[in-house]
């Protein structure tokens, strides 16, 4: 059984991005909004068809995430972001384009879990300082597409 | 930290199948019914306990997928197929049996995302022309099992 | 394109744990309660914030799983446990701490699939007898957290 170096490199890349998504979204869902923003590049962009304007730069992304996090906490709602069906395309040694699906599951304290929204997510990821970071994220809610 | 060649080969295989599923189902969900059918072998079979007859052969699979795709588009519904919990078993150098779960999430334009069905999916996959292809897919809807 | 041995080892580990979860939960969902309990160590612990007491030891875990499995079968409900967003952290050559999300999807025979609960799962996994096993699992239902 032989496995080519290219096949190994592709599998490692695919797995790293999956792992990155798991760690990244666990930060947001556990309320660490600023740490989550730190998974974007300093000049990173977060855009969504549900938002009037993109958030540009870590500080702006962090402030928006903090606001939403605090509102959910005040409402007693636990969010879970599931990113899956990840399709990774290498653009360069340290650059990747990844398309995935994302679900947001919400559970009110003492209440019933529910599927909030289904979305598609397009990410431009770059490797800097030895770790993957989001340079550009575009989220498309299925109900608005 | 040593990693055996066998462990690497198994991980590469598992990751390739996950990647295949992501790319495959993104084709269908984005309306590329014919490209999706092209991820089956020329003589591929798609069977489901929700269908009276299996679809046999790429052309038949493509026609059925095109019909469903057009109906969903006309109804303004975005489908998302989530394949996960993928359990890959190597059958030969170029043959794999994979068991996974599949959810279908549907979102009407301007409406609420909902879980349509939960299913189990049994795939016989073969590698031909340098890429994985489905030779036989059996889908079991949980409500009909 | 070079891939370091460390990067390969990390990807192999991440993939092994994902594969373990897929195989493990397919056992439970297909009613093989005793085989599922066999994926815990002999002294394994299964604790959940929805249960008054942890189940300690394979025999106790098996008995609890058998009881639940039989109740679901009698009620005609197919369960599907989806574990995802897996974040693996190596603790040693044969020890891993993994944090993931878990959804339970339920479908009554002839009925509508529904999201039963959303949870977070913390696992201590050890490799013994050449396979990964759960030494300690803590499940936190989002509605009770």
UniProtKB/TrEMBL annotation, chains A, B, C:
Record-given protein name: Nuclear transport factor 2 family protein
Domain of life: Bacteria
UniProt xrefs under InterPro entries: NTF2-like_dom_sf, SnoaL-like
Naturally occurring in which organism (per UniProt): Streptomyces pyxinae
Gene3D superfamilies noted in UniProt: 3.10.450.50
Residue ranges of domain SnoaL-like in the record: 14-137
């Amino acid at each position: 059984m032989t496995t080519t170096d290219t096949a190994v490199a592709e599998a490692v890349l695919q797995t790293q991005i999956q792992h990155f998504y798991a760690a990244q979204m666990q930060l947001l869902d556990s309320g660490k909004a600023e740490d989550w923003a730190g998974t974007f590049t300093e000049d990173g962009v977060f855009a969504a068809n549900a938002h009037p304007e993109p958030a540009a730069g870590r500080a702006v992304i962090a402030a928006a995430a903090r606001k939403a996090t605090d509102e959910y906490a005040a409402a007693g709602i636990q969010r879970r972001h599931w990113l899956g069906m990840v399709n990774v395309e290498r653009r360069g040694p340290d650059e990747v384009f990844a398309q995935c699906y994302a679900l947001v599951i919400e559970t009110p304290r003492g209440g019933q879990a529910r599927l909030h929204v289904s979305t598609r997510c397009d990410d431009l990821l770059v490797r800097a300082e030895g770790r993957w970071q989001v340079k550009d994220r575009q989220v498309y809610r299925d109900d608005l597409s």
